[in-house]
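ok so I'm stuck.
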Amino acid sequence: MSENIPEDVISKIFQRLPVKSLIRFTSVSKRWRSIILQDPHFAASHYQIASENKTLSHSVCFRGYFDSDCFFESQTTSSSSSPVMKTGLRCPFTKPDSLVYLYCSCRGLVSAVFNGENIERYIWNPSTGLSQKLPDPGVPNEFQIFTGFAYVSATDDYKILIANSRFEEGEQSKIHIFSSKSKSWRRIQDSQYSGLSMSVLGTLCNETLHWLRFKQDIIVAFDLADEKFRIMALPVVEEYGGLGDFGGCLCVFGQVDVAAASIDLWVMREYGKGNSWTKLFNLRISDQPDKQICYVQPILVTETCTFLEIHTESGSDRRVAKLVKSYQLKIEEVHVDRYRHGMVGYEESLLWLE
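replied:
not stuck anymore, here's the structure
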């Protein structure tokens, strides 16, 4: 019966359905599968409509361990009190006894690094399971000190930034950028921002990447259009947690209140204006006072709930990363990881790199 329905009508109906439903529909027929997974114009239209209507679904992806399928999905729901549903994800580039690091996400795509015999970089869509291996940026024997993943709408170009260094005295970090348009890496001007005082993962907001620079209490921003660094002001608080995105606004966590086991969330109401920082709300991050908490990173911040990566010191002086869901003054522990960079929030989409 569906064969008699014009394809443009099917597309218009599909464009308003959630990604999870569409993925299930790919098994109905080859025709439907082709529309949903192989038509870049449909994928772009679907994402644009969901963005404009504010109906994008958000999920959190985190990894298991060496002998598992490596990745599971934790989906936020319309009701903050709904339980976290874990669903296995297809990740085609994992191998036994190796680890994949999840760094940043953009429009439903995740920047991932496979750490096996060789370091390999991928762009992966957790919703569809599709992935693309990126060329080698050519920076051997150097440490990656910060990174970011973004989309430039004016040129329809996805860009990944990596900053590498050998940590030699006086050395500036070497900045390389991958462009999906050119399908290649290129090196741009070195940056004065180097060392261990930078947050590793760039937060995307207003088509600009942002990192915390702890020693100077500033935000380092990188505009993807003109590919230049600049600095931005932070709210006046004693200490800072991680940066995040809240409804399209840049946000940052303040100092952890150990006694209350909570943390303040600040939002920049007007982008680029330091005097627009506003303390929005206070989040519960533990069921009891926890002096072992040393760092809190927002993974996914929504109006109904927040997913946080909380780093604590274990008895062996080794950090443990916990993924927790905070909502209505309640805490739900979702996952515990022995390694860093194993959790990322993302929008569900059908997009991919062509």
